[in-house]
Amino acid sequence: MIRSFVALACLLSFNTQAAEDITVYKCTIKGIATFSQTPCAKNAEVIKLKQPLIADKQSNNGSAASLPGTSSVDNYIEIQKIEREIKRHQLSIKNYKEDLAHATQQASYVNQDQANRMGAESIADAIATKTAAIQNRYNGLISAVQQQIDILQQQKRQLSSQP
């Protein structure tokens, strides 16, 4: 009986101990980000993550994802993926803007014959019509990518606010 009581007391004290920091090391090996529990290179970046209370984690149905510290590490990795995706989308927007500038410049090379075939009254009207169509097309593409960036930033904020 006394042994059971001592074992139970030890178990309860273990489950309610204060959260400790989890140390993760980030290294870039051959251009690929690698995460490890031990230093993986001399220039390893040290990342400190808060470990949630064990008692809090045991209330999450005891699933494999509820191991101590797993969610913070998973959130960090997911945030890194989201940041890479945001950068990729920002590069797409930059490329669309460059393409827009190039296409707009090309649209300004309209001659009278092309303007007549377009049904425009003048070369200036033909250029304006062509430029407006090009801008509408690229603005739609840029807007769609910007919406994706906004969604990713919202996901990143949600993950950042979780323990």
What can be said about this structure in brief?
Residues 79-106 form a coiled coil. The chain is of the alpha+beta class. 63% of the residues lie in helices and 12% in strands.
Can you offer a commentary on this structure?
This is RNA-binding protein. Residues 1-18 form the signal peptide. With 163 residues, the protein is of the alpha+beta class. The protein has a 3-stranded antiparallel beta sheet with strand order 2-1-3, with no helix packed on it. It is 63% helix and 12% strand. It starts with a helix and ends with a helix. Helix 4 packs across helix 5 (123-161). The chain folds into 2 domains: 20-50, no CATH class; 65-163. The radius of gyration is 28 Å and the shape is elongated. Strand 1 and strand 2 (32-36) form a beta hairpin. It has 5 helices and 3 strands. It has helices at residues 2-15, 54-58, 70-107, 112-118, 123-161, and strands spanning 21-29, 32-36, 45-50.
Q: Which percent range describes the beta-strand content?
A: 5-15%
How many discrete structural domains?
A: 2
Give the termini separation: 38 Å
Strand order of the largest sheet: 2-1-3
Protein name: RNA-binding protein
Organism: Pseudoalteromonas espejiana
Keywords: Coiled coil, Signal
Key descriptive features of the protein:
163 residues; alpha+beta; three-stranded antiparallel beta sheet; 5 helices; 12% strand; elongated; disordered N terminus; signal
Produce the secondary structure layout:
Layout lengths: L1 H14 L5 E9 L2 E5 L8 E6 L3 H5 L11 H38 L4 H7 L4 H39 L2
Antiparallel strand pairs: 1-2, 1-3
